Amino acid sequence: MKQMTFADAEYAGKRKQTRKELFLIEMDRVVPWKGLVALIAPHYPKGEGGRPAYPLMAMLRVHLMQNWFGYSDPAMEEALYETTILRQFAG
How big, in percent rounded to 5, are the helix, strand and coil portions of the chain? Predict the structure, then answer.
């Protein structure tokens, strides 16, 4: 089991869910994750010869968040550092 960070503990104590959080909960429920991963997996780099590849599910979730919220690559990276719900959704 992964240990809870201070940021996660602070986030767990908040009372109201934001629209973004509700949207991500809904997307987690309705997106066919297994089907998408099965389609992408044969084409996804295996990380052979060089830097290891990020997990496919995490990259798929980050890519979708970029499209849903209109983030550029640098903005998405920054948002992942700053926003707990985005980190949790990405896994």
Answer: 65, 0, 35
Distance (Å, rounded) from C-alpha 38 to C-alpha 23? 24
Q: Residues 73-91: pLDDT tens digits?
A: 999 999 999 888 899 999 8
13 is written with which tokens? Answer: 């104590």
pTM of the complete model: 0.77
CA distance 89 to 73: 17
Secondary structure letter of residue 44 according to DSSP: S
Amino acid at 19: R
Neighbour tally for 17: CB within 10 Å:
12
